[in-house]
């Protein structure tokens, strides 16, 4: 939307912006208001390992990128456990492995994808640099070549201090102070963060779970939203805008 000129098309940048996302772990009727970081920044990555393909019965004539890939998956775990300050929240994980060969043959390439999630920009960049060094070193140890590609996705979603009091008042009016909560930040990522790089922004979590039962998390096949949350979300954003007009 920013690339499409949303500010220009709407008459200029607003003074601030509010947004929300459902939170199935919270029952409908609850609103989460957090100061500072609420959701993580994210860098996606793709590592391609190139070996020498051949017949599965002649591994000595091949260079198998699958073996190198298995070692690299293990190595990636050390980015958090051995290369990151324990005080820093960081996720660096591999989520898919793909080869270009049919079953039972040694492939020419293996491609792995994953992501780095962080709350401190410096920690995210350090993890990305460490990934490149690990990929090159592990590949060389197994006779392969490595190509590491980094794809920055979104920055950290940070709630502006100047909007914190407005957000708390809006939540209290909408659902009651007793239903306004402050759980820990989450390592999920949110593209709403891009707005916050240009203007003060505040992001809520809107409870969307059913009380008295375990609710499936985001991106689960069992995910189900409690529709009772919908009018509360609309009211929360409307109240936030009205209070911002009064206070800013």
UniProtKB/TrEMBL annotation:
Protein name: Putative hydrolase YxeP
Top-level enzyme category: hydrolase
Record organism: bioreactor metagenome
Keyword Hydrolase carried by entry: yes
Keywords: Hydrolase
EC number, as in UniProt: 3.-.-.-
InterPro entries, per database record: Amidohydrolase, Bact_exopeptidase_dim_dom, Peptidase_M20
Keyword Hydrolase: yes
Any GO molecular function: hydrolase activity
């Amino acid at each position: 939307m920013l690339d499409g000129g949303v500010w220009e098309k709407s008459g200029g940048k607003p003074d601030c912006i509010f947004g929300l996302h459902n939170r199935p772990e919270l029952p409908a009727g609850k609103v989460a208001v957090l100061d500072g970081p609420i959701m993580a920044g994210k860098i996606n990555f793709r590592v391609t390992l190139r070996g020498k393909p051949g017949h599965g019965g002649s591994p000595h004539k091949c260079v198998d990128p699958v073996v190198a890939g298995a070692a690299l998956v293990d190595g990636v775990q050390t980015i958090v456990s051995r290369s990151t300050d324990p005080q820093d929240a960081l996720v660096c994980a591999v989520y898919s492995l793909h080869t270009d060969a049919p079953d039972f043959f040694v492939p020419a390439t293996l491609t792995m994808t994953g992501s780095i999630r962080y709350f401190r920009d410096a920690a995210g960049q350090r993890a990305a640099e460490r990934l490149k060094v690990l990929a090159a070193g592990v590949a060389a140890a197994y006779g392969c070549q490595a190509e590491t590609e980094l794809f920055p996705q979104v920055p950290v979603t940070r709630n502006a201090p100047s909007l914190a009091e407005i957000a708390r008042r809006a939540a209290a009016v909408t659902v009651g102070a007793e239903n306004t909560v402050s759980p820990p930040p989450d390592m999920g990522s949110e593209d709403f963060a891009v707005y916050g790089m240009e203007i003060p922004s505040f992001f809520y979590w809107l409870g969307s779970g059913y009380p008295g039962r375990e609710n499936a998390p985001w991106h689960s096949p069992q995910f189900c939203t409690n529709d009772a949350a919908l009018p509360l979300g609309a009211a929360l954003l409307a109240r936030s805008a009205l209070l911002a007009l009064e206070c800013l």
